[in-house]
Amino acid sequence: MSLKLHYHPLASYCWKALIALYEHEIEFDRQIVDLADREQHAALRKISPFTKFPALEDRAKGRVITESTLIIEYLARHYPGRVTLVPADPDAAFDVRRLDRFFDLYVHEHMQKIVGDKIRPEGKQDPFGVEQARATLATAYDVLERELGSQPWAAGDRFSLADCAAAPALYYANRVAPFGDHPRLAAYLERLHARASFARTFEEAQPYMKLFPG
Q: Which domain holds residue 121?
C-alpha cells in the first residue's frame, strides 16, 4: 500500500485523520506509535522532526504529511474517495475551512490545555491557564449553539473536513468541560457518534481509554 499512517488510537488529532481515511474508504498501513518507547519515538522523529502525529507517509510519492488538516487536504487532492470532504465550490470550501479552524483553535487547543495540565509534574500546573481555557470553551460552545441551527453537519447538509475536526474536539472537550445547557451542540455530537467513520475510530480507541487523564 502507498499510504502509511503513524498515529496513536487515543490521540485526538489522530482521530481527525482516521475519520477522513475511513470516510474516503482508503486502504492504508498503520503504525501505532508509543512515544514513551525510545525506539518508536526515534523512528517517528526520522519522518516527523517534531515527533508529532498523525504523520501520513505516502511512499509512492516520497512524501510525509503532518498536521491533521493538511493530511485531509492532501487526501482530498491526491486520493479522493467516495465523499468530498473539501467542497469544490470556493465559498463552500471557505466555510468548511473556517469551521475547521474554529474547532481546532477554539475547542481542540483549549481542551488539550485542560488535559495537559492534569499530567504536568507536581508544582508545574497552570491553574490560570486552565481557567482561561475553560472560559474559551464556554464561549465556543455558545457560538456553536447559535451557528449549528437545524443543519445535520457543521457546514450544512454534507459531512466535511469541519466535522472531522469537530468529532474528536467535541468528544474530549465534553469529557473535561461538559456542554451543559447546549442542546444543539449535544445533539450534533450524538450525530457524529452515529457516523460510521467516527464510530469505528471511537471503538478502536476503547482499549486505550483507561490512559485518558480527563
A: 90-195
